[in-house]
Amino acid sequence: MRDRNSAPTACRLRTDRSRYPNASSLQKYAGIAPVKQKSGRQLWIHWRWNAPKFLRQTFVEWAGQSVPKCAWAKAYYRQQRAAGKHHQATLRALAFKWIRILWRCWQDRVPYDETRYVASLRQRKSPLAAHLSTA
User: Fold this and answer.
1) Predicted confidence band at 48 (pLDDT cuts at 50, 70, 90)?
2) 83 CB-contact burial (10 Å; exposed 0-12 / middle 13-18 / buried 19+)
3) Residues near 55 by Cβ (< 8 Å), separated by ≥ 6?
């Protein structure tokens, strides 16, 4: 019998870093990466139905909680909302970004450092870096 407070086994990242060879594989597993379907001239995008719902919801809620506490997340949220995205779509997009960051920290075995990430945004001349000064 597992502890009531522990996450289901399927949702744990574990220590096998080769299980997710890139951030995209983790995004797909978590159900955050969108699915594109095309038939003829029509193209539609939806989320993954076959994904661990607890893990997906955890990432979306984590993204939402990061907005008031993280300067770049707040800037990204405002940028997406100004572009007309709905709240939930913006949180999913933010979770998509967070998974990439989490995956890199997990692979490199280093803790997350916001100043390092913001410096990287500025170095790459990311459009988000311009919004950081107004956040």
Assistant:
1) confident
2) exposed
3) 7, 10, 11, 29, 30, 31
